[in-house]
Amino acid sequence: MFTPNNSSESHRVKTALRIIEIIEIFAKEQKPLSLSELAKALNAPNSSCLALIRTLLSLGYLYETNRRQGYYPTSRLLAMALKINQADPILERVQPSLQELSRITGETTVFGKLSADKQVIYLDIVHSENPIRYVAMPGEIKQIHSNSLGKALFSEFSSDEQAAICQTLSFERHNEKTIVDADEFMLHIQEEKKLGRYTNFGETLPDVGALAWPVHLSGMLFAISIAGPLYRIQANIDEFAEKLRAICTLIEKGQ
Fold first, then answer.
1. Residues 182, 188, 190, 193: is their CA dihedral positive or negative?
2. How far is CA 95 from CA 98, 233, 235, 246, in A?
3. Which of 67, 78, 137, 232 is deepest in the core (most CB within 10 A)?
4. pLDDT value of residue 1
């Protein structure tokens, strides 16, 4: 029986990472890219990049637009992603509520949870018809201390668990509004809980605001946030918080 050694296992992990990076590069650039452009973006040799491209070509995920313009993803990737998303048992139950919350507030709604390393991961987003400068995407990773979802999720842990989590946080400062002290952060969470919402008033991006609330679903902890321009979030904070808590309660009762 063949047992992979550490180098072959590491090679497979690196190859998988490169494939994901190629997808993200095309998402960012939104145009055909040549072999040399892809290799430069990956910081990889042309030969290594060519092997990855040939694999994606053979599987139907890339096509060659022409020899001068380079390569671009086919719609196969989108089709596969849609199939996966449509079969997600959690999102299937939450998406109608996210859409309704976005409709009645006019703002973007975000659904997320904590990853194993205690970072916030966005699972689904319903964008507002009045978009803001920053547009979030599913799969984005955020820090707990400067994110409304992170605060809402953090609030559901015991005091001892919160203290332990704080020891692992970097408390990176994004601007003068960012809380960068563990004791101040824990006090902030207690105060926010009393107010019935967990907010981010420009702590990551100066002009963007959000409020969040935790929701338990299928024995797991998630959170939902309402995000938009800071001035609109602050002007409607109490109304939005009431609607947000009501939606979360409905989701939990619908289990």
1. negative
2. 5, 22, 26, 15
3. 232
4. 43
